[in-house]
Design goal:
heterodimer, A: mainly alpha, two-stranded antiparallel ribbon, 4 strands, elongated, B: mainly alpha
Chain lengths: 422, 215
């Protein structure tokens, strides 16, 4: 019995196999494969199309409903010119709406490929973009602790001082009582505020503390460490340079070529924001803990440059954004960015701090003369393979002979007055 | 006792005033003593306002490459434009550094069109940047690459304000040297060698091999 079955199986094995393959094949043809469609879409379509957003070409959400005939859509993808030439009204309208820029044809796509892509578009259409990425909330609170602590310490000090005063008063009263009991004559006690020792001590403390505060205040005049102005647009360096890894020089291209790092012009913002019209990153907060609507801030950029994000065109002449300058040096100080970045090979963060973690930028360094000079005294210049320092032959010779192991900025004249003041 | 409490109140007021003076508002720039020394009336030639302005129409900076005259629509002519620079190994390295800063953010440091801003569609940039390493864009000539950097293309904007002409040519040469897995590097260097001195050619040949070997 068993043997007969196995023979039967062997006899029909090939036909069963063929049947199975045919069944699987027919299934896979009928149902579009969104995963395969996604790969095809990203390779061929994504540079001009997005499912939810208009880029160079229209947003593709609901594209199948918009075309009257699916065959025509296939023909459009294979060769858009032929559909326009045939005079289909929807195709002609589309061509005119997008500046008469024809979509390149994709004759190599099979019908199954196109169905896969359409399947991916349909699947992607169902994803709600507004819920995409409402990431972890940013830093909030935290720095309030410092203020609370100092207030607490102040109150405790005040209470302890009052207690000490009361105890001293009690002590003198008890002494007086003890003296009365012993029958000793005691002169009328001088109240503490008329006591010369107390007055002298108070004046001394006031002089020292007042002097310290006055001198510190005077030194601080014109210095702006921690200055964090409110900018016209909530531009987060953390989002751009931190999360999205954009290099500092991408926007501040002047840092390598000029005295100034330069606030980027608006066309540099629009390199990316022509297509990035909404903010989907982690929630943003101002230093005061107020929530910031990222998309509304991007809209402020569009308002300034006169860009209409629906039609992707510049509809009005632009106007400059009035950013507030944070790092200010007096006019009698010469500072050159390119000298520090190119010849000195300094990192931006050395003077500007952890910019990639700042939502709102504040001045990290003191930018005082002592701060500059201290750095010039200790920083070693990159002396070897640096054409900029080739004229310092004596130092090169000494390094070669092993007399000195490195050259500091001070040694090449970095603390001369005229280097920065002239 | 009444006088004691009066003094205590006065002391509390004074210390309060001192404390409030210490609390700094860092939204404000603070005060200056003699601001006329800070912002002098002398003419600051290298002022930030001047250095962000465009150069006067029709002028060329000293040592700068001559202006590029093709218009945005002249793509066919741009294909034939030759790189005016004689490139050394260091220039290609510089081109690579610049590419990674200005182009890599979208096109990826491998030039495969998958930089951090796109990241397989997970990044914030909604359009897929062009794959420069292979495919249709890999056959672009240096002239065409320079043209695209100058005027922008589709969703990409112009980079003329960030990169001067020499930097753009260096990037074009670097991109060309890594396209198609470095297969068309030889043609670039051959066209250079017709203009370059023999010494320069010798220097550029290993450069192309070095930069392609890393990818």
């Amino acid at each position: 019995m068993y043997r007969r079955v196995s023979i039967l199986m062997r006899k029909h094995f090939v036909s069963v196999l063929v049947l199975c393959v045919a069944l699987i094949a027919s299934l896979s043809v009928r149902a579009a494969d969104p995963a395969k469609g996604k790969a095809l879409f990203q390779q061929n379509c994504a540079s001009c199309h997005n499912v939810h957003k208009k880029v160079t070409g229209p947003a593709l959400k609901g594209v199948e409903e918009r075309w009257s005939d699916k065959k025509l859509l296939h023909q459009w993808i294979h060769n858009s010119g032929s559909v326009i030439a045939a005079g289909d009204p929807y195709a002609v309208n589309l061509f005119n709406e997008y500046g008469k820029q024809a979509m390149p044809g994709f004759p190599s796509f099979s019908d199954a490929d196109i169905d896969d892509i359409l399947g991916y578009i349909e699947a992607e259409s169902k994803v709600d973009v507004t819920t995409k990425g409402d990431g972890p909330t940013g830093t909030k609170g935290g720095d309030e602790d410092g203020g609370n602590n100092s207030l607490l310490f102040g109150i405790i000090t005040l209470i302890l001082a009052v207690v000490a005063l009361i105890l001293m008063q009690i002590n003198s009263n008890l002494n007086k009582l003890a003296a009365d009991k012993d029958g000793l004559a005691v002169s009328e006690p001088v109240p503490f505020y008329k006591n010369k020792a107390y007055i002298a001590l108070t004046i001394l403390i006031l002089f020292v503390v007042g002097g310290y505060l006055t001198i510190n205040g005077a030194i601080g005049l014109g210095r702006q460490k921690d200055y964090m102005p409110e900018q016209p647009i909530f531009y987060s360096h953390k989002v751009h340079a931190g999360i999205n890894q954009i290099n500092c020089l991408y926007c501040h291209a002047g840092a390598e070529k000029s005295k100034h790092a330069m606030i980027p012009s608006e066309n540099i913002c629009m390199n990316c924001h022509k297509t990035i019209t909404d903010y989907n990153g982690p929630a943003l907060f101002t230093a005061e803990g107020k929530k910031v609507n990222g998309s509304a801030e991007i809209q402020k950029l569009f308002d300034a440059v006169g860009f209409d994000k629906e039609s992707k065109t510049y509809t009005r002449p632009g106007k400059p954004i009035e950013w507030t300058k944070i790092h200010n040096l007096p006019d009698h100080v010469y500072f050159n960015h390119s000298q520090h970045v190119v010849a000195g090979k300094q990192q931006c963060q050395t003077c500007h701090g952890a910019i990639t973690e700042m939502d709102e930028v504040h001045q990290f360094a003191e930018l005082s003369m002592g701060w500059c000079v201290n750095c010039h005294r200790t920083t070693k210049v990159q002396f070897a393979d640096n054409k900029y320092y080739s004229i310092f032959e004596q130092f090169h010779q000494q390094v070669k002979e092993g007399k000195i192991d490195s050259v500091t900025v001070e040694m090449v004249g970095g603390t001369e007055c005229q280097k920065c003041h002239y | 006792m009444k006088r004691t409490s009066n003094i205590l109140i006065a002391a509390a007021l004074v210390s309060g005033a001192l404390l409030s003076a210490c609390g700094k508002n860092n939204r404000k720039p603070g005060s200056h003593y003699m601001p006329d020394m800070f912002e002098s009336r002398a003419y600051e030639f290298y002022s930030e306002r001047l250095s962000t302005m465009k150069p006067v129409e029709g002028t060329v900076k000293r040592g700068e490459l001559l202006p590029y005259h093709l218009k945005a629509a002249d793509t066919a002519l741009a294909n034939a434009v030759k790189n005016p620079l004689i490139l050394t190994k260091a220039d290609l390295e510089e081109g690579k550094r610049l590419f990674n800063i200005y182009c890599g953010i979208c096109h990826g440091t491998k030039a495969d069109g998958n930089g951090p801003l796109y990241n397989d569609g997970k990044g914030p940039y909604v359009a897929a940047p062009a794959n420069l390493a292979s495919g249709a864009k890999a056959s672009y000539t240096e002239g065409r690459l320079f043209h695209v950097m100058t005027y922008g293309f589709n969703a990409m904007g112009s980079y003329a304000s960030q990169l001067d002409r020499e930097q753009r040519w260096k990037i074009a040469a670097y991109v060309r040297s890594i396209q198609n897995g470095g297969a068309n590097a030889s043609s670039v260097l051959a066209s250079d060698s017709t203009k370059a001195a023999p010494a320069a050619t010798a220097a550029t040949a290993p450069a192309a091999q070095d930069s392609t070997a890393k990818h």
